[in-house]
Amino acid sequence: MNKWISKSIVTGLALSLVAGCASSGNEDAASKKSADNTKPASKEEVKPTLKYLGPSTSFDIQKQGVVDDIKKLTGYNLEYSMLPADKADEKLNIEIASGTDKDILMLSPAQYAQLSTQGALADITELVDKYGPNIKKAIVPTDMEQTKLNGKLYGIPYMQDSLNIRRGIEVRTDLLKQLNLQMPQTPDEFYQVLKAVKESNKDGIPFSAATWNINTLMSGFGLYNDWNEVDGKLLPLMKTPGIKDYLTYLVKLYQEGLLDPDFAINQTKTVEEKFSSGKAFSFYSGWNEHARIAPALSKAFPNATTDIVDPLKDKNGKAGVGVPVDVQRILSIPKASKNAEHAIKYMNLRMQRENPDIFMKTVMGDEGVTFKIENGNYYPIEPAFSEKFAFAWWFMPGFDQKDYPTMWQGRLRRDPNMFSSFEQVNRQLKEVMVKDPAGYMPPNAANLRYKQSLGKLQSDFVVKVLLGNKKVADLDAFNTEWEAAGGKEMEASINEWYAKNKNNTKK
Question: Which of helix, strand or coil describes residue 290?
Fold first, then answer.
């Protein structure tokens, strides 16, 4: 249940940056006839060096093969730099306060919300209208609205690579078979499975997790996103019908020793280790984490098999899982930049799809050389693909929303374990997907002001309930406290936006 305004915003710019790269394109006169309508630059035009700031990363950004391809295809030279791993937010503050010489910033949603409301970013509305036909063609208007403030555009949205369910409950199916159990389909069936597992192994952990917000289980109680539509309005999770039953269910699992007793202090890595070592029968995992878990589990238990529990059905037989639709990151131009026009031209060319297809060549490479297409699906040709494009995502300023999701799945196929888990988690995507209605909302002052504190207030309450320090019956009192702490203002603000934009969230 992610929502970039609800889930990502933190105060004081304690944020993480993600950087991108850039492009411009072959600009001969023949390109006038191409579908992207990119107007070629004159031969006399001097392209400035563009300075690009990104996040700390483990690979050497200067030694990536795609860097040379970008320069060759766009004609733009970029100077890449990244924030330090430690105190990155302090560095960013210094950059902005000192009138940064950077031309392009890849921002997290929270950073974008903070900087755009502070007036630190350039208004690029007219520049995109004039120099960004490829950008406007690649990104649907509804998504572009997410990076507008008071009707003005301050960033190019880099959306979710592909609509997908990110996490699920992974179980040891070989142990299920030993116990003559079936994969559970309802909350009660899941409880019965965990109970049987506990009886067969008193020292084991039937279910391990590092959070209480478990989409597979919440599905069984009609809970899908942080904000859920009820009678035409958006209600926060803790006011959504079904939340009391869900909390009661979690308390039952915890009190009977079916939920990891350390869930409140667990870290993701700790939970992974409990599962791969055989201590835990099941755990809540992300499909991307399976790439790390599978080899360790196979080494410890060569005959072990696993699968993902499909989202549980509620009492009416319905299942649903929230799917994020918000931006991952945003390409913005600092107000201090002297090269805003060229920065937009560059990003526009990076999204060019014809004569030549710069986007494809700087993300996937050349068909038959670094990738192949079979039945409409992309497959990397290794090691050629990874040698040049393993980290191409770091340099992307955005993407063609029609074609890239399929290309992105091709990138996942570099790791068979990861892609297998991805397919398992998402095999019911079309049937159970519930798009996050509040995920379409642009920066919001109330969210900026209250999200961090209200999120902590909520998590603290749920943990206290599970540990027995609070009761489920205290939920109404919690909601009163939540409203007084800024929740009432935030709820009103979100619903004011939703009343005007409800139809756009259902596309």
Answer: helix
The radius of gyration computed from the CA coordinates of the chain, to the nearest angstrom, equals 24
> For residue 245, how many C-alpha atoms fall within 13 Å in the half-sphere facing its CB?
14
Measured CA distances, 227 to 18, 193, 199 (Å): 26, 30, 38
Q: Compute how many other C-beta atoms are within 10 angstroms of the C-beta atom of residue 492.
A: 12
151: exposed, middle or buried (Cβ count in 10 Å: 0-12, 13-18, 19+): exposed
Say how far residue 183 (Cα) sits from the centre of its chain: 28
Buried b (16+ CB within 10 A) or exposed e, 409-435: bbbbbbbebbbbbbebbbebeeebbbb
Phi-psi bin for 148: left (phi > 0), alpha (psi -120 to 50), beta?
Answer: beta
Identify the H or E element spanning 274: helix 268-276
Alpha-carbon gap, residue 70 to 22, rounded angstroms: 7
Q: Which of 16, 15, 17, 22 is nearest to 392 (CA)?
A: 22
Cβ 93 vs Cβ 120: under 8 Å? no
Per residue, the 3-state secondary structure of 192-213, as one string, reads HHHHHHHHHCCCCEEEECCCCC
- What is the rounded distance in angstroms from the CA atom of residue 446 to the CA atom of residue 314? 33
Report the distance separating Cα 397 and Cα 331, nearest Å.
6
Spatial separation of the C-alpha atoms in residues 300 and 433, rounded to whole Å = 35
Please identify which residue in the block is written with the tokens 């699906």. Answer: 377
What is d(CA 440, CA 447) in angstroms, rounded to the nearest whole number?
Answer: 14
Amino acid identity of 342?
A: H
Q: How far apart are CA 169 and CA 431, in angstroms?
A: 18
Per-residue pLDDT of the chain (507 residues; tens, 9 = 90+): 443 333 333 333 333 333 333 333 333 333 333 334 444 444 557 999 999 998 888 889 888 999 999 999 999 999 999 988 888 778 877 899 899 999 999 988 888 888 898 899 999 999 999 999 999 999 988 889 989 988 999 999 999 899 999 999 999 999 999 999 999 999 999 999 999 999 999 999 999 999 999 999 999 999 999 999 999 999 999 999 999 999 999 999 999 999 999 999 999 999 999 999 999 999 999 999 888 899 999 999 999 999 999 999 999 999 999 999 988 899 999 999 999 999 999 999 999 999 999 999 999 999 999 999 999 999 999 999 999 999 999 999 999 888 999 999 999 999 999 999 999 999 999 999 999 999 888 877 788 789 889 999 999 999 999 999 999 999 999 999 999 999 999 999 999 999 998 887 776
Rounded CA separation 223/429 (Å): 16
- Cis peptide preceding 383, ω within 30 of 0: yes
**78 DSSP 8-state letter:** E
Q: Give, in degrees to the nearest 5, the angle at Cα 383 between 292 and 306.
A: 25
Q: Are 400 and 352 in contact (CB under 8 A)?
A: no
